[in-house]
Design brief:
Blueprint (H helix, E strand, L loop, with lengths): L5 E7 L5 E4 L16 E3 L4 E2 L15 E6 L4 H14 L3 E5 L10 H5 L8 E4 L2 H10 L3 E5 L6 E2 L4 H7 L3 E5 L8 H6 L2 E4 L11 H16 L1
Parallel strand pairs: 5-6, 5-10, 6-7, 8-10, 8-11, 9-11
Antiparallel strand pairs: 1-2, 1-3, 1-4
Amino acid sequence: MDNINLHNILLCHNCGFRFPLSPTERKIEKCPRCGSILEQAEIPYKSFSVPTKENKLPESIFIAVLDNIRSAYNVGSIFRTSDGAGISKLFLCGITPTPENQRIEKTSLGAEKAVPWEHSWSVLETVQKLKNDGYFIISLEGGNTSVNLFNSLHLIKQQSSKIALVVGNEISGIDPEVVKISSLCVYIPMEGIKESLNVATAYGIASYIIRYQGL
């Protein structure tokens, strides 16, 4: 086995605390709970993986548009999700950070090298061009015209084989003019006190639901 990819479980014999240690982390000598010396609990192991490329989609069938996302960490997370969900391209619009920003790598973990991307200063022009090119535009946003994502998958299946998912600014959401020209506006229902999810979390839910249930 390649030692570079092996993980360890460290054990505190005093309080029973168990701690996972990845190959890239500096070894922790003392227990964070009681301060005793930690020892390796079992033989090194490889982290578990899941099957990949079970249902690969044709090129350019599912893309995403990021409307003025502020946080490079959110963008990095979206890159990683896009790689997993089979997004064929990301359009990074307005002030959305691009992979030249080193903070993206902290959450993308290399996915920014695998997912094609393009920067555009105008999200409205980008979405309008995609619509003209035959894409079914889905804005992930609230409002009076928005419908529950989980109840609208049949509409997505009926309309187009080319999907563009738009997500918006963490505070202000998607440009109202973009929502106006969208083919469909959807929201993710919320059960608690908050009215919305983190944009990267919401994007992850929507992209996978559309990817495996709407196409």
